[in-house]
Amino acid sequence: MYFPNLDPTTFYDNDDYALANYVSDPPSDELIHSIETELGYKLPAAYIALMKIQNGGMPRNNCFPIPNAPANSYVAITNILGIGREKTYSLCGELGSQFMIDEWGYPDTGVYICDCPSGGHDMVMLDYSNCGPEGEPEVVHIDQEFDYRKTFLAQDFASFVNGLVPEETFQT
Questions:
Q1: How far apart are CA 145 and CA 160, in angstroms?
Q2: pLDDT, tens digit, 9 for 90 and up, residues 90-100
Q3: Which of 6, 63, 113, 117 is deepest in the core (most CB within 10 A)?
Q4: Domains and CATH numbers, the chain
């Protein structure tokens, strides 16, 4: 429904590192509600649907072309954070969304869902600035190195996931 071309057997790169640090059991409805309460935001239905297929991980297609930018402009991600607390890289894990707000000073206007290869200097976020905590958030890139500059990526999470492409797309 949300991801018509997603093959769950090939979407993620499930190596040992990814399984140990990112992938959790599928979230229960109780866990989802608990995480939403802790974060203060209702998670998009498409995000929850993807996490029920696999709860977090490292996508093989890990680049998103930046709309209305020069050719070969893209944001690379290393992972999509799962719904949970037990994995270091989960929404409420040790290095999850609230950690990025509290420790790195990222804007508190949404939920940080993807790390980037910069090691914390930029992130991808579900941005609730325009819709409120119960609405359908946009997906944006936040660049800490440029005064937390926000760059629009996609109108919703499903569009973001469906727009991910392999890094080779941008190699010349």
A1: 23
A2: 999 999 999 99
A3: 113
A4: 16-170 (3.40.1580.10)
